[in-house]
Structure formats: structure tokens, C-alpha cells
Design a protein that fits this description.
binds nicotinamide-adenine-dinucleotide, 6-stranded mixed beta sheet, 20 strands, 15 helices, 38% helix, 493 residues
Length: 493
């Protein structure tokens, strides 16, 4: 199969890297080279940031709020129409199941419609002051160019989640996609032009970490929305801090999924498996630590292991496949090494634990879905993100004990609670330090409900009405309506 070639896209035009250099991405299912992309540097980021800034100070900035919202909705329509094609690009680069990615991309239409609808509902307020002769009101203004940096696991979904509130607020966008999955962001920017958004509203520059660093450092970029690892998030926040530019950070997780003894076992079993093994465990909200009440532990573990052994690995474009490959060779090695170290440290592998052979795909990056038990609470497996299909199970007896276990990591992104006892569920939901808590479900998400992390899982919230505030700044306007002007030099002493 021929290797596809992509370009940067900014100011409504394709552009090669100014240096002329390119890099190659691989298809993790076949292990073969798939596409070439510009290996951009700071000069390309500068050109794209200028294009984004011109659009902000030009057509996009002067458009009415409702016209802006309607263009966003039109882009939502186009994303829906092109969902399968966009999903093919992502599946070819990160190995996620094609039908699952298509559904996820279709769901992003909801983000464009929701925030498109909010575009003309951004209101300031009139402040009731004690000085009755003064009119004081607030204006809520866009920031300018918003830099969006995203990882490889859900490229379009995470990009749209980041750009929708920023666009609705009137900003323009400069995206640095993951070097693993650059193609779909470029196509998204082209669709924005097709929808009628002025050139320069959505821009994409591809490349390695250095491109992200140049974006964060660029003086025209007024806000960063970053989704990725906590290590990169810390570096980005430090750099942005030097420039006094704010960041929304959506980082990693080590989320607990807690099963009490009064559950419907079928539901809990499905919830635990889907919580960890969806997208081969490569999701920030993966329920990678399961805590199961001691009285049902053996039975549930037996069921989980039996089902896990039957998961069908294969080509993610084939509908019968239940789990695709790991996105990169480096990530595959990380999975294998972390499981090996966990076993060396005393954890017991109940199933999986190594690379998987998939007939017909000898060079694919496949890893067996893996379950371990008896990992110590302080071990690497229980504290660090694997970002792969690896579940650690631990028994518990008491409410207080499991509340402590759930909070015993640096992260705080998501948590699952499985119980029929409504009081216990809500009391535990209050105790868990995580941005999202699911009761008798897992992974549910909507454009209308805030999402984000506590502790090392991030700063700020995406989704919901409040997300738009992160892309606006408030100006207070004071106007004296009376004839008397306070004169500090005429004060009686
Ligand atoms: P990563 O942090 O290595 O890279 C993410 C992006 O940041 C890439 O585009 C990369 O080039 C860029 N980057 C890396 N270092 C940078 C720096 N110092 N300055 C500027 N840009 C930089 O993450 P990844 O391996 O691509 O993705 C996996 C991580 O993403 C996991 O930790 C996962 O939990 C997290 N994630 C979080 C969410 C969420 O919503 N909380 C969603 C998906 C993934």
C-alpha cells in the first residue's frame, strides 16, 4: 500500500515544513509505514500563529455571535458526514476499533451543536453599585489564539472537546496533534474551511514535542488547552506560567473501579471489563485498579479472567474484532515492561501478561489483555499509568478501607462504584478525590457535563457551560452618568 502524504494546514492553505523535512507514522496493525507529515519547527508554528491571529483580528473577530454559532453547527454536520473517513485515518494510526472511533466522532457533532448554540448566549452583567450615578457593566471577550495540544488515543474526540468552547467564545485555534495521529486534525481543519469558517480559524502544525514547546512559547498564543500525560502537562504549565498564560490541563489517571458485595454481578463484570479493556486500555479514564469486596472476590475474579481470555484480538477494521493493537511500538514495550516489573515485585498474573500473536498480522503491536492480583499498594503498577489493557485487582472488606485505597494515588480523574446501596454510593462519591464518579456505570460522558481531573489529573474543566469561561476574559467598564467628578485634589482636610 502506498504511503500517504500530508501537509500542515494554516491560513486556509496546505504548507510543507519550512525546513522541507518530514516524519513518518506507522500503522500499528501491520507495523508498516503509513503516512508522512511535515517535521515542523518554531518557524512553522510562527507562520501558523500569525495566520490564526489575523483571523482573530479579521473576519472571525467581526462575525456576529449567532453567525459564529451557525458556522460551528455546519462544521458539526460535516464532521458527521465524514465520520467514517476520519475514523479510518485514526484507526490506521492508533489501531482503535473503526466502528468505535466512527461512533465517537459522530458523538462530537453534539459538542459543535452545544457550543455553537452557546456562542450567542455569552453575556456580561450590569453591576449594582452603591454609587447610583455610575453605570458599571462587564464585557466578556475572547482571548485570541488558543493553542490545542492533543494525544493519540482519541484524536478527533479530544480535539473537538478542546476547540468547541474556545471557538464559541470567539477565539481562533492552533492545533499541534500527536505525532502518532496527525492526519485527522488536518482533515478537520479542511472541513472547517468547507463549512465556511474563515481561513485561519482552525490551523494545524504537525511535528514532535518541540512543535508543542514552540506553540506554548509563542507570544501570539494566549491560552493553552493540553490533553496528555502529567509529565508533559507539568512542563507546559511551567512554560506557560513564565509567560503568564493560562492552561487547561487534561492529564492521566489511575482510576479505581469499586465493587461492593450487593451488586448485580453481571453488570459489575461488564463494567469492570469495559472500564479497562475498551480501546485496549488506552484511555485516560481506564478503570485500571479494581477493588472487589472479599466475599465475592473469588467468584468475580474467575468470571473476569474467563471473559478476558475470550477477547478477540485482530484487525481493528474488522467488525468482529474486540480489541486492536497498542498504538505504538514504544507503548507496547511499556506495557510489557510494566507487567514484567509488577510480576517481579510480587504481583500474580492471572491471565495475559505478554505480547499476543495475531494470525495474519505478525508485525502488529498486539498485547494480551492482562489481569494481575496481589500488587502492593505502593508498587509501580498501582501508582503509575500503564495506558494499556492491564488490570490490577485487589480485595477489600470495609467502606473506610476502600475509600482510602481509592484515593491512594497521585491521580484523580475518574472512579466507578458498583452497589445497590444508594446511601453508600453517594457517601463514597463524596469521599473520592476524582473529577468524575460513576455509580453503576462507567465511562458515561456528555458535552453538557463537566469533565476534568483533580490532583495530578489536571486543572480546569472541559464540557458543560462553565468550560466556555476558560476561553473568555472579563472586562469591567465604569461610566459616570452624573455631573460631579470626584477630584482628589479638592478634598477638604
Ligand atoms: P504526551 O503527553 O506524551 O503527548 C501529548 C501531546 O503533547 C503530543 O502532541 C506531544 O507531542 C505533546 N508534548 C509532549 N511533551 C510536550 C511538551 N513538553 N511541550 C509541549 N508539547 C508536548 O501524551 P501521549 O503519550 O500522547 O498520550 C497519553 C497520555 O494522555 C496519557 O497520560 C493519558 O492519560 C493522557 N490523556 C488524558 C486525557 C484526559 O482527558 N484527561 C485524555 C486522553 C489522554
Amino acid at each position: 500500500m502506498s504511503i500517504k502524504s500530508f501537509h500542515n494546514y494554516y491560513g486556509g492553505r496546505e504548507a510543507a515544513a519550512r525546513s522541507g523535512q518530514t516524519f513518518t507514522s506507522e500503522n500499528p496493525t501491520t507495523g508498516l509505514q503509513w503516512g508522512t507529515f511535515p517535521l515542523s519547527d518554531a518557524a512553522d508554528v510562527d507562520a501558523a500563529a500569525r495566520a490564526a491571529d489575523s483571523a482573530f483580528n479579521g473576519k472571525w473577530g467581526t462575525l456576529s455571535h449567532s453567525a459564529r454559532g451557525r458556522l460551528m453547527m455546519k462544521l458539526g454536520d460535516l464532521i458527521g458526514e465524514h465520520a467514517e473517513r476520519l475514523a479510518e485515518l485514526d484507526t490506521a494510526q492508533n489501531g482503535r476499533l473503526h466502528f468505535e472511533v466512527t461512533a465517537q466522532i459522530r458523538a462530537t457533532q453534539g459538542w459543535m451543536y452545544y457550543y455553537g448554540g452557546l456562542a450567542d448566549k455569552i453575556e456580561g452583567s450590569v453591576i449594582p453599585l452603591d454609587q447610583t450615578s455610575v453605570l458599571n457593566y462587564t464585557l466578556r471577550e475572547a482571548l485570541g489564539v488558543v493553542g490545542v495540544i492533543v494525544p493519540w488515543n482519541s484524536p478527533i474526540f479530544l480535539t473537538v472537546m478542546s476547540i468547541a468552547p474556545a471557538l464559541a467564545a470567539g477565539n481562533t485555534i492552533l492545533i499541534k496533534p500527536s505525532e502518532v495521529t496527525s492526519a485527522s486534525a488536518i482533515e478537520l481543519a479542511k472541513l472547517a474551511d468547507e463549512a465556511g469558517l474563515p481561513p485561519g480559524v482552525i490551523n494545524v502544525v504537525t511535528g514532535m514535542r518541540e512543535v508543542g514547546e514552540a506553540l506554548v512559547a509563542h507570544p501570539l498564543v494566549k491560552k493553552i488547552c493540553f490533553t496528555g500525560s502529567d509529565q508533559a502537562g507539568r512542563a507546559i504549565a511551567a512554560r506557560a506560567g513564565e509567560r503568564l498564560v493560562s492552561c487547561t490541563l487534561e492529564l492521566g489517571g489511575k482510576s479505581p473501579n469499586i465493587v461492593f458485595d450487593d451488586v448485580n454481578l453481571d453488570q459489575a463484570e461488564t463494567g469492570i471489563l469495559a472500564g479497562i479493556f475498551a480501546a485496549a486500555g488506552q484511555t485516560c479514564i481506564a478503570g485500571s485498579r479494581a477493588y472487589v469486596h472479599a466475599s465475592i472476590y473469588d467468584e468475580l475474579v474467575e468470571r473476569l479472567v474467563a471473559r478476558t481470555r475470550k477477547i478477540r484480538l485482530g484487525d481493528p477494521m474488522v467488525t468482529a474484532t474486540q480489541m486492536g493493537p497498542i498504538a505504538t511500538a514504544a507503548q507496547l514495550k511499556k506495557n510489557r515492561d510494566m507487567v514484567a516489573r509488577a510480576a517481579d515485585a510480587g504481583a500474580e498474573i492471572l491471565c495475559g501478561g505478554d505480547l499476543a500473536d495475531v494470525p495474519g498480522l505478525p508485525h502488529g503491536f498486539f498485547f494480551q489483555p492482562t489481569i494481575l492480583q496481589h500488587a502492593s499498594a505502593s508498587s509501580e503498577l498501582m501508582q503509575s499509568e500503564v495506558f494499556g489493557p492491564v488490570l490490577a485487582i485487589t480485595p477489600f472488606k470495609e467502606f473506610e478501607e476502600v475509600a482510602g485505597m481509592a484515593n491512594d494515588t497521585a491521580y484523580g480523574l475518574g472512579a466507578g462504584i458498583w452497589t445497590r446501596d444508594i446511601k453508600r454510593a453517594h457517601l463514597l462519591a463524596r469521599r473520592i478525590k476524582a473529577g468524575t464518579v460513576w455509580v453503576n456505570t462507567y465511562r458515561a460522558m456528555s458535552y453538557s457535563s463537566p469533565f476534568g481531573g483533580m490532583k495530578a489529573s489536571g486543572i480546569g474543566r472541559q464540557n458543560g457551560i462553565e468550560a466556555i469561561n476558560q476561553y473568555l476574559q472579563t472586562k469591567s467598564v465604569w461610566c459616570e452618568l452624573g455631573d460631579e467628578i470626584a477630584d482628589p485634589f479638592m478634598m477638604k482636610v
